[in-house]
Specification:
Blueprint: H1 14-18, E1 29-39, E2 52-58, E3 66-67, E4 78-88, E5 94-100, E6 108-115, H2 117-120, E7 125-131, E8 140-150, H3 151-171, E9 174-184, E10 197-203, E11 211-212, E12 223-233, E13 239-246, E14 254-262, H4 264-267, E15 272-277, E16 286-295, H5 297-316, E17 319-329, E18 342-348, E19 351-355, E20 364-376, E21 382-388, E22 401-407, E23 417-423, E24 432-442, H6 443-462, E25 466-476, E26 489-495, E27 503-504, E28 515-525, E29 531-538, E30 544-552, H7 554-557, E31 562-567, E32 576-586, H8 587-606, E33 610-620, E34 633-639, E35 647-648, E36 659-669, E37 675-681, E38 689-696, E39 706-711, E40 720-730, H9 731-743, E41 747-757, E42 770-776, E43 784-785, E44 796-806, E45 812-818, E46 826-833, H10 835-838, E47 843-848, E48 857-867, H11 868-887, H12 899-904, H13 909-938
Region (Disordered): 1-22, 883-939
Biased composition (Acidic residues): 891-904
Domain C2: 10-132, 157-277, 302-424, 449-568, 593-712, 730-849
Length: 939
């Protein structure tokens, strides 16, 4: 019996070792595998390097899935071979083998990499570096594995897309715009220098390419920015984009650097904008492209309708266009040291019109240059080309092209083209150009309108000059022309064709959005003359830099006027200028009116001065003139042309909206003199700073008076001043009336201070302890004061006092205080009354309290009791009569009614009682004063 043979142990199945039992038994999915490259392969050939290729196999399958191309004589091959496995079962391992290709013998294995399913499923593997194993193997293999999702879902979606593509194909051809933008990291196939790359586009299954880009010489990262429209593309046809290295000596010889094949569903109908990896033998790098669906045959028909319309418009005659070249950005650097100095030209078919100018160094180049195309025919394409001014040869031919933009007629005519950024096209170009195109109408109509306008201007000019008021309000978004800080802008106005400016504003320091509110009256403006506004940045001394310019045709503002924000133009200009222009009428009529006004003023001034009551009520919206807190404003009033102010208010501390309620009587005002009110900030400095100013023409307040909130002219918009002006009549009449009243002698007045309401609370604890004092100006001491109403903001005094001698013309000052024990009373408010307010007719009214921070009202009654001498005589007579009645004749009954008692109730009787009461009140007042004085000394 033979002994049993020893059974050799079975070798483990590598498929089982690599299978991942943790993965769910899901349905099949799609995988995209990209064999990118290998590095450091062993050298399997005797005389040369290896000729490697790679084979991919799913270990559960018998046959390999795919293999790459052979890369000759290279131990660091780059394949960039992409393959889609339509049905991959999760859990199946992959095997990647690298071989050395031999023409006469069997391929030699250079190494193996086995990849477990869990390594790439379900999250994929991005540029995985796999170490090759096996006998004598060395080096690594670089792969990318992508999970494209469920095979069933993909197949369903694919079927749906293909059905949709069939429907679209049945609908007819479409127009596609294919933009081949750039490539990067291409393979270098030239012995000297680098590859000379170009790209071609072919619609499969056609043999010939549709188009190809220009050649970018000696560059592995070419930029083409080449755009081409495929006139008739059928849905479902794939596109093949091939990048080649051109042969300078033989145009037929070219080396393939890589291919991108795109299925129709990848870009149609939604379009595509992305970077695609190049594939193929030895391919490396990527291609940046963009594909746009421009529409179907119906769109083509519409385009043809546009062309037909263009024919009709062309037959109608030439039109005028305004082409504005706004800016450019992302331009390539063409200078060795400096940045480029670009300019742009505009060409219309066979005509050439240079537009825009040279711009200084910068990253965004701003021209804002307008050009009028006087005769444009519908259908003509516009071509805008940007050059670098520094790169001009001696024959004035530009050698450095930034880029070119071609705009088809239908894109801007007749509807115009709003501000739009268009990409430059051409070999090696980059950047964008921003333009704005407007259709200004038929040239013939414009010429007719021009002729009519010229006739109108001639008529207006024949009528003589006019006066216009030009107000330069503000500017916004100006260019910053300073190295440190912002621009220091000012604006000048010039009437063309004059060479010198008519006027200019002040300089606003460190601002790109200045506010000037500068007003200027042009005394003699002739219709038809243009206005030119130029904004400058003021540098040291007389140096200045233009920030932008606006030119206004006469028809834009005359005779109707204008208020608008105008776009600045010129090299590097940006931002807007806000102006207001008003037509003030004929200069001759104004001069005649001025002469008549001067005569009227002379007549009024000859009649003598008047008296004015000027009340500065409040201000609002004042700016902060110092770093900490708010301004400390006060207001000064000046009667022009005097140099010194007539009066000024008190200072209101730390307030941007002060309330002064300051009244002042101007004793002598002559008609024709304007008033100037200036608000200052009294912050500690050598000189108060001006917060705002307003000049009030005399006609606005004389003789009718004025009550208005006036806008202050300042660098801070929105500030205003509220004033009241009252005409108190002729000074001569006032003096005559006062003289007549004063000639009669002093009068007796009865004052009744009834009450106050809504007073300011000046105490920390409790309410104000208020009292009221009355002073007859120009006396220093008060005439009387009421008792103190303790802890009262609405005190009721009903305090009566008789002034024994009042002279007509003397003003009154009534002041309400808060009494503080041992301290100076706090001012709660004050009222000034001129003599005419209460004498001789009396007064009974509730008056508002004025002064800083004052609130509330004061109710009082003032009565004239008559001439003091007459009242005193009547009192003497009355007292004598009373004395006689008390003594009585002998035998008469003392209790019997007498005629003297009736007389007491007659004229003057009430005055006697009032005098007695006034005397008692005066004694009480004096006692109260002494007591207060004693308290203050003790305190």
């Amino acid at each position: 019996m033979e002994p049993a043979k020893a059974t050799a142990p079975k070798r483990p199945d590598p498929r089982q070792a690599l299978a991942d039992p943790s993965l769910p038994a899901a349905g099949s999915c799609r995988l995209r595998i990209t064999i990118i490259s290998a590095e450091g392969l062993k050298d399997a050939d005797m005389t040369t390097r290896s000729d490697p290729f790679c084979v991919c196999k799913i270990l559960t399958m018998d046959k390999p899935e795919f293999q790459t191309a052979v890369i000759k004589d290279n131990n660091n091959p780059v394949w960039n071979h992409r393959h889609v496995i339509v049905e991959y079962m999760p859990g199946d391992p992959l095997e990647l083998k690298v071989y050395d290709h031999d023409e006469k013998a069997k391929p030699e294995l250079l190494g193996v990499a086995q990849v477990a399913s869990g390594t790439f499923f379900p999250n994929g593997l991005d540029k995985g570096e796999l170490k090759l194993s096996g006998r004598g193997a060395r080096g690594t293999l670089n792969v990318r594995i992508e999970n494209l999702g469920s095979a069933a879902a993909f197949a369903a979606a694919d079927r749906a897309r293909r059905e949709a593509l069939l429907e679209l194909r049945a609908a007819g051809p479409h127009r596609l715009r294919v933009s081949l933008l750039s490539a990067s990291n291409l393979r270098d196939v030239d012995r000297f220098g680098q590859s000379d790359a170009f790209c071609s586009c072919r619609i499969l299954p056609k043999e010939k390419p549709e188009f190809q880009t220009g050649v970018v010489e000696d560059c592995l990262n070419p930029v083409w920015n080449y755009e081409f429209e495929l006139a008739e593309y059928l849905a479902g046809d794939p596109l093949e984009l091939s990048v080649y290295d051109a042969d300078k000596r033989d145009s037929e010889k070219k080396k393939l650097l890589g291919v991108v094949q795109l299925e129709s569903i990848c870009f149609f109908p939604e379009g595509l904008d992305r970077e695609e990896y190049l594939t193929g033998k030895g391919a490396q790098g990527s291609l940046r492209l963009k594909i746009e669906n421009l529409g179907s045959l119906s769109d083509i028909a519409a385009a043809r309708a546009v062309e037909a319309a263009e024919v009709v418009l062309r037959e109608a005659g030439p039109h005028r266009l305004r082409v504005t070249v706004l800016s450019a950005r992302f331009l390539k650097d063409t200078d060795w040291v400096d940045k480029p100095h670009p300019f742009c030209s505009c060409r219309m078919r066979s005509k050439s019109n240079a537009s825009a100018c040279i711009e200084e160094n910068g990253s965004v180049f701003i021209w804002n240059r307008e050009h009028i195309v006087a005769e444009y025919l519908a259908g003509d394409m516009l071509e805008l080309t940007a050059y670098d001014q520094d790169q001009l040869e001696w024959d004035d031919q530009p050698v450095s092209l930034f880029g070119r933009v071609q705009i088809a007629s239908y894109r801007f005519f007749p509807a115009g083209l709003e501000e739009q950024e268009l990409s430059f096209t051409g070999t090696g170009t980059q950047g964008k150009l921003k333009v704005h195109i407007q259709n200004l109408g038929l040239s013939a109509e414009f010429e007719a309108a021009q002729a009519a306008e010229k006739a109108s201007i001639a008529s207006l000019r024949a009528a003589g000059p006019n006066r216009i008021r030009v107000t330069l309000l503000s500017a916004t978004g100006l260019k910053d022309a300073d190295w440190i800080g912002k621009s220091d802008p000012f604006c000048s106005c010039r009437i063309l064709p004059n060479t010198e400016p008519e006027f200019q504003t002040s300089v606003i320091k460190d601002s790109t959005s200045p506010v000037w509110n500068h007003e200027h009256i042009v005394a003699q403006y002739f219709a038809g003359d243009k206005l030119e506004f130029t904004i400058f940045d003021q540098d040291g001394g007389d140096s200045r830099v233009s920030l932008g310019q606006v030119e206004l045709a006469s028809s834009k503002f005359f005779p109707a006027g204008l208020e608008d924000e105008l776009c600045l133009s010129g090299a590097g200009a940006k931002g807007k200028l806000k102006v207001r222009i008003e037509n003030l009428g004929s200069s001759a009529e104004f001069e005649a009116a001025q002469a008549a006004e001067k005569a009227a003023i002379a007549a009024l001034r000859a009649a003598g001065p008047h008296r004015l009551l000027v009340k500065v009520v409040s201000a609002s919206g004042l700016k902060d003139a110092h770093w900490v807190g708010k301004p400390d404003p006060f207001c000064a009033c000046r009667i022009l042309p005097k140099q010194e102010p007539e009066f000024q208010t008190s200072v209101c501390k730390d307030s941007a909206s002060p309330v002064w309620n300051h009244e002042h009587i101007v004793a002598e005002y002559f008609a024709g003199d304007p008033l100037e009110l200036t608000v200052y900030d009294n912050y500690a400095s050598p000189k108060p700073s001006v917060l705002g100013q307003v000049q009030i023409p005399w006609k606005t307040f004389f003789p009718a008076g004025l009550e208005q909130e006036l806008q202050l002219v300042s660098s801070w918009p929105g500030s205003s001043l509220k004033v009241q002006i009252e005409n108190l009549g002729s000074k001569a009449e006032f003096e005559a009336t006062r003289a007549a009243l004063r000639a009669a002698g002093p009068h007796k007045l009865r004052f009744t201070v009834i009450s106050a309401s809504g007073l300011k609370d000046a105490d920390l604890l409790g309410s104000s302890d208020s009292f009221c004092s009355c002073r007859i100006l120009p006396k220093e001491k008060p005439e009387f004061q009421t008792p103190v109403a303790v802890d009262q903001l609405d005190p009721v005094w009903n305090y009566a006092y008789v002034v024994p001698e009042y002279l007509a013309g003397d003003a009154l000052e009534l002041t309400v205080y808060d009494q503080d024990d041992g301290k100076i009373p706090d001012l709660l408010g004050r009222i000034h009354l001129s003599s005419t307010d209460f004498f001789p007719d009396g007064l009974e009214e509730e008056l508002e309290l004025g002064g800083i921070g004052a609130t509330g009202k004061l109710k009082l009654k003032i009565e004239s009791l008559g001439v003091a001498a007459d009242l005193d005589a009547a009192q003497v007579t009355e007292r004598a009569a009373v004395a006689g009645l008390e003594k009585g004749p002998e035998g008469d009954d003392a209790d019997a009614p007498l005629e003297g008692e009736e007389a007491e109730s007659g004229p003057g009787g009430e005055d006697v009682d009032a005098l007695r009461q006034g005397k008692e009140q005066a004694e009480e007042q004096e006692s109260w004063r002494k007591e207060n004085k004693l308290r203050s000394r003790r305190g």
